[in-house]
Amino acid sequence: MSQPVPNGTMPAAYSPVPLPGPSVFWPPKAPQIGHRVFYRLSATDVRAIARQRVAANTRAPHVRAGMVLPAVVVRASGTVSEPCNLHVLLDGPDTYWAEKVVCGDGDGTWAWPAQPAGA
Question: Which backbone phi and psi does 50 adopt, to 5 degrees?
Answer without folding.
Answer: -60, -45
